[in-house]
């Protein structure tokens, strides 16, 4: 009977979250860190799997499949770039059709199938070319089209699964905390940092344990462990189904943007009202748009003067009380959302080449808790910001650290080439790996925090997909940059920057180029970020203005 609590479901319920049966979620029985930890578990396994494949893939492509160094490097960056670019597809599917929970479950299964094919590709003799008869004499047979086709099928199914999974996992994790509860909101903000920490744990295991297994026991064992890990991650994730908090689908922002642009163009001849309050918005007569959308709670956004030509999409034609399609009439909130070395230790142990990334991951693992426990309290006392640095400030710090990292890499490479007789210790790489890792921690967490906190309500998945797709552009740019440098400087000879034999190249010049590009990137970012006003402040200012207007209207003339 309506209005009577169900047996076993007593307690405070949430107005914007539901349980797996579609009932209002009971706060004490759903969500929180228990559920968030299960979601973190599947992301840890995803990172272990994806990086476990990528980090040592170059050596497999060159040593086993007999591709060139540049082609192998580009294959890896293209694989990673595709993984992040497909986050946009995953975000669209999650926001429009499946929701975050089903998207994670289905795409994790897709990733499992991809890793399984990769395991078969590395285990079956017929799917690899024969061992080189005489490598020095050029007696290596390159992998056939069929052999590379099976390998690519496994890689890109893995990339597809990674894209769908990564687009939803951080948003679904943050859904487990109630932003209306001060204590849970603080937990949600800390979730972003620990989300990245768990990613780094998976990365650490990939570049140490998995790389060692691949190098010493065989690639098929390493990839087989990846397949088992992602299956276990999926099982852990599904085990929390009855305790998760679910949010209603709001629809894809791509469709919303298209509707706003179409509505503005259709009504381009109409005059805009002088008073923005005359525009159609959430809570106006006639409802939000369509009956199906009334249940999709959205946060009303304050009006801004940007892109005023789009405001025509919210101009009411005819009877305001008659509901109209969103393709004819958008809310003002819809319009606002549319604009928005030597590797030995001792005499016997040699660090695997793929495991050198452990220094990078280790610096991340140190940076995350150090920032949470040391930097935040110190900055809080200086700035008064309870969260320490703002998201954009964290990104700027990360970009500055990346510049220092490239400079350190260039200087280390010069020293390595100068050490012609005595090999340079691998520990000379620690400063640059530490700077890259710390910069990654600041930048990634700052971006994740920014995109999830500043995005319109109900668009966390697509916003995360957009953020991760920008990472893919970096991988594709890396491939393009390597290709350009090859063509400009040559693939061999004294002038080449990136020859197959790096002892005969000028890798340090490549690092200086990256440092220069990083400086340009930081300058552009600072210019773009200076004028940004955070949503929390915009909403507060709008509320203050509204209260002042009401007070002014109540004063006697």
UniProtKB/TrEMBL annotation:
Belongs to the major facilitator superfamily. Proton-dependent oligopeptide transporter (POT/PTR) (TC 2.A.17) family. This is Major facilitator superfamily (MFS) profile domain-containing protein. Keywords: Membrane, Transmembrane, Transmembrane helix. It is found in: Membrane. It comes from Ensete ventricosum. It holds the Pfam family PTR2. GO terms for cellular component: membrane. Its main location: membrane. GO terms for molecular function: transmembrane transporter activity. GO terms for biological process: oligopeptide transport. It comes from the Eukaryota. The chain crosses the membrane at residues 75-94, 191-214, 220-238, 351-371, 391-411, 418-445, 465-489, 510-533. It is a multi-pass membrane protein.
